[in-house]
From TrEMBL:
Residues 89-104 have a biased composition (Low complexity). This is DMT family transporter. Its main location: membrane. PANTHER family: EAMA DOMAIN-CONTAINING PROTEIN, INNER MEMBRANE TRANSPORTER. It comes from Streptomyces kebangsaanensis. SUPFAM superfamilies: Multidrug resistance efflux transporter EmrE.
């Protein structure tokens, strides 16, 4: 009745397993997609943004206080991430930005057309 906790089905353990497996799978998929599309440097920059987003969500959702030191730290992180993103754009090309395109180009150059059976083989007469 009042004060009693009701848990569904098998309790908290199956829920933790499902959430752990699902969240891990989604995270790995998104990480590899970012690495494939944007390159390793830009994927690493996403990791630097996690504390900034966490602090902002803590302030907005939970009402946590933001001190000047915390805001300054967030500014430093954002400036650093901005510098990594701007560096490749300012030069026109960068090794990290071109890595996925270069890899795709090398894969396309190494593909060979399929050989149909019987072609290219010598048969004894």
């Amino acid at each position: 009745m009042l004060g009693e906790q009701q848990t569904g089905g098998g309790g908290p353990h199956p829920a933790a397993v499902v959430l752990g497996v699902f969240c891990t799978a989604v995270t790995f998929h998104l990480t590899y997609r970012i690495v494939n599309d944007e390159g390793a440097t830009n994927a690493a920059a996403v990791g630097y943004l996690l504390p900034v987003v966490s602090v902002l969500l803590g302030a907005v959702v939970l009402g946590e206080n933001l001190s000047a030191r915390v805001v300054l730290g967030m500014v430093v992180v954002l400036v650093g991430v901005g510098m990594t993103r701007r560096n490749g754009a300012a030069e026109g090309t960068s090794a990290t930005a071109d890595a996925p395109a270069a890899r795709r180009a090398s894969l396309e150059n190494t593909r060979r057309p399929p050989v149909s059976p019987g072609r290219g083989r010598r048969t004894a007469s």
